[in-house]
Amino acid sequence: MNLIEPKRWLELVLSLHQAMLSSQLRTVLTPTLADVFVFSYPIYLIVLYSIGRIKKQISYKVASLWIFANVVVTTLVNIGIQALVQKSRPNIVLWLIDEKVETVLHKFLPTSSFPSDHAAVSMSIAVATFLRWIQKKDRKYIYFSIILFVFSCIMCVSRIATAVHRPTDILGGILVGAIIPLLLSTKKISSFGEKISLWIGKKI
Fold it and tell me: Contact, 41 vs 121, CB < 8 A?
């Protein structure tokens, strides 16, 4: 299935891209911001898990495993949608390919740009963390989720500016990343996931 992008969205990509190129600092910084936060997510999960081990509170270990499970499911769903939807990246459509503004992970980009993997994963981990706060009323989760939401917003805007994604790609990824944790947090699924995470948390 092929999706046609509204002209106004392509114009937005072009205007953000030109704004990025108008400053040498933005030209260097934006491609980095488009990817760099992805590397913080494994660190976050490791820190969360480590808090559980140090404080001997298995709830943090369970949380890290549950959030990780959300990310895995989100990624699989996103890949499934990408297999069904063919949508070339804007930097190809608009002839904006330039090695000077390539993102860190540019060479590993999948062919289809819809929905955005980065937007999906970043939103999934942020929403899953926020839901953990709702469930456990632990302030650590709300602080972490705010930081993660900020990371996600910066990264998503940067990916549009570098022309590797359109706004609709980002919005599609955000929807997937938000819906999956909400579905997995439903009572039956969440209870099953908690039991598995608890069992794994006790083993490792």
Answer: yes
Report whether 163 contacts 92 (CB < 8 A). Answer: no
From residue 146, alpha-carbon distances to 37, 140, 184, 189 in Å are 14, 10, 21, 25
The residue whose two tokens read 């990817």 is 35
Query: Please, what is the end-to-end C-alpha distance for the chain in angstroms?
Result: 43
Q: Is 23 left (phi over 0), alpha (psi -120 to 50) or beta?
A: beta
Q: Strand, helix or coil at 96?
A: coil
Calculate Rg over the CA atoms of the chain.
Answer: 18
Look-up: residue for tokens 């898990």? 49
Which pair of structure tokens corresponds to residue 48? 């969360």
**152 in Cβ contact with 123 (< 8 Å):** yes
Q: Return the exposure string of 154-185: e unless at least 16 CB atoms fall within 10 Å of the residue's CB, then b.
A: bbbbbbbbbbbbbbbbbbbbbebbbbbbeebb
Structure confidence by residue, pLDDT tens digits, 72-128: 999 999 989 988 887 776 666 555 555 455 555 556 566 667 888 899 999 999 999
Asked if residue 51 lies in contact with residue 57, where contact means CB atoms within 8 angstroms, the answer is yes
Query: Does residue 73 contact residue 135 with C-beta atoms inside 8 Å?
Result: no
Which tokens is 24 given?
């040498």
Give the list of residues 6+ apart from residue 176 with CB closer than 8 angstroms, or none. 74, 77, 78, 81, 115, 120, 123, 124
Please state, in angstroms and as integers, the Cα–Cα distance from residue 84 to each residue in 28, 42, 87, 176, following that order.
34, 28, 10, 15
